[in-house]
Amino acid sequence: MATRIATPDDLPRITELLAELRERDVVVSSIEQQFLAILGDPGRTVIVVTHDEQVVGLAVLNLVYKLPKVECRLDEVIVSNDARGHGYGRELVEACETWAWEQSADVMEFTSRPSRETANALYQKLGFEIRHTNVYVKVREL
Which terminus of the chain has a lower count of CB atoms within 10 Å, N or C? Predict the structure, then answer.
């Protein structure tokens, strides 16, 4: 088990993991431009966790500059269905924390569906607290 920053070679496997999370197909070409932009931005990254050099999980991290703090937002935190329950999630989240603190983030935050009970239990075990808030979203009309 190891963690590292993702590379362009990881894109096909990352696409598969995103499809698992979203429960629908994800095409490499639909995320390639954004993925490469993330890798080229010092305020953003993708961390992967591997088993025998095979990517089994990932997280996208984005620094958000607010006044007066810097937040690290975790998005797309995923561990493959086949790899769950073996410590990969813990390893991944701890690597995310290390990256965030190295970037001088003051706080880390993310959302997780309530139905992801095992993941939510892990986050709480790792010291994350639920922040009770209203989340609003508006989708751009095409």
Answer: C
86's tokens? 């073996």
Strands 54-65 and 70-79: antiparallel
Q: What is the pLDDT of residues 54-105, one digit of tens each?
A: 999 999 999 999 999 999 999 999 999 999 999 999 999 999 999 999 999 9
From residue 29, alpha-carbon distances to 12, 15, 32, 36 in Å are 10, 9, 5, 11
Enter the tokens of residue 47.
């961390």
Hey, which residues does 45 pair with through a beta bridge? 61
- The predicted pLDDT at position 87 comes to 97
And the tokens for 99?
């990256």
Q: Using an 8 Å Cβ cutoff, are 9 and 48 in contact?
A: no
User: Domains of the chain (ranges plus CATH)?
Assistant: 2-125 (3.40.630.30)
**Residue 56 buriedness (CB in 10 A; 0-12 / 13-18 / 19+):** buried
Cβ partners under 8 Å of residue 102, min gap 6: none
User: What was the pLDDT predicted at 21?
Assistant: 85
Structure tokens at 79: 């561990």
